[in-house]
Amino acid sequence: MKEFLEFIVRHLVDHPELVVIDQVEAETTVTFTLHVGPDEVGRVIGRIGRTAQAIRALLAAVAARQGRRAMVEITGT
Q1: Which residue has the higher pLDDT, 35 or 77?
Q2: Strands 29-36 and 69-76
Q3: What is the rounded CA–CA span in Å between residue 62 and residue 54?
Q4: pLDDT over 70, % of the chain
Q5: Which residue, of 14, 35, 41, 44, has the greatest Cβ tally within 10 A?
Q6: What is the helix (H) or strand (E) element at residue 36, kind and residue range?
Q7: CA atoms in the 13 A half-sphere facing the CB of 43
Q8: Is the predicted pLDDT of residue 36 greater than 90, yes or no?
Q9: What is the pTM assigned to this prediction?
Q10: Alpha-carbon gap, residue 34 to 41, rounded angstroms
């Protein structure tokens, strides 16, 4: 799932080399912390948060197929 998230986000931003994804796994949940450049948070969140919603929905679908839950936190560093 991390590679899938990384692929999506790197194609949304102007500086893909600044994208860092941390992954924390629990028994039934995977939490991803997505770090992007401070000027590119808006690109990842999108207009009215729709891009972030779409990313979260895609990861939720992938995680559900594995019997898990996925959460995504987006930060600008």
Answers
A1: 35
A2: parallel
A3: 12
A4: 100
A5: 44
A6: strand 29-36
A7: 18
A8: yes
A9: 0.87
A10: 10
The DSSP call for residue 67 is T
Dig out the tokens for 57 from the structure: 């929905």
Using CA atoms, how far apart are residues 70 and 56, in angstroms rounded to an integer? 8
Task: Enumerate domains of the chain plus CATH numbers.
Answer: 2-76 (3.30.300.20)
Residue 37 CA to residue 56 CA, distance in Å, equals: 19
State the residue for tokens 């924390």: 24
Amino acid (one-letter) located at 9 = V
Instruction: Write out the DSSP string of 5-63.
Output: HHHHHHTTSS-GGG-EEEEEE-SSEEEEEEEE-GGGHHHHH-GGGHHHHHHHHHHHHHH
